[in-house]
Design a protein that fits this description.
Length: 102
C-alpha cells in the first residue's frame, strides 16, 4: 500500500496559513461556467463559501477593485488583485465554514 497521495489534507485544529495560491485555486473553482472569467455571481458564491457575512457586498467591492478594464468581470490578470482583496479579509481557508470575519 505504498500509493502516494498528491493532495495533503490537514485535519484537526492545526492552523494553516491562507496562501495566495489557495485563494486563487478557490476562486478559480467558482468559475462555474468555466469561461476563464469571474462574474459577480461567481465571486459572490466564493465569498459565501469563505464565510463572509456580506458576500454580495464583498463580491461588488472585490470586482470593483480588481476590474482594471471595467468590463464587470475578473479575468486571469485581474484575479491577482482579487486574491489580494480576499487576503486582506483574513479568511482562514482551513476552517472557512465556521469563520466569520467582518
Ligand atoms: Ca465564469
Ligand atoms: Ca475585467
Amino acid at each position: 500500500m505504498a500509493r502516494e497521495k498528491s493532495v495533503c489534507v490537514h485535519k484537526g485544529g492545526m492552523p494553516v496559513a491562507t496562501t495566495e495560491q489557495q485563494i486563487k485555486d478557490l476562486l478559480k473553482r467558482y468559475d462555474t461556467n468555466q469561461n476563464g472569467l469571474l462574474d459577480k455571481a461567481e465571486v459572490q458564491r466564493a465569498f459565501n463559501k469563505l464565510g463572509s457575512l456580506f458576500p454580495s457586498y464583498r463580491a461588488y467591492r472585490g470586482i470593483k477593485i480588481a476590474d482594471d478594464n471595467g468590463d464587470g468581470v475578473v479575468d486571469t490578470y485581474e484575479l491577482e488583485k482579487l486574491v489580494q482583496y480576499v487576503k486582506k479579509q483574513n479568511y482562514n481557508l482551513a476552517n472557512y465554514k465556521n469563520l466569520h470575519v467582518v
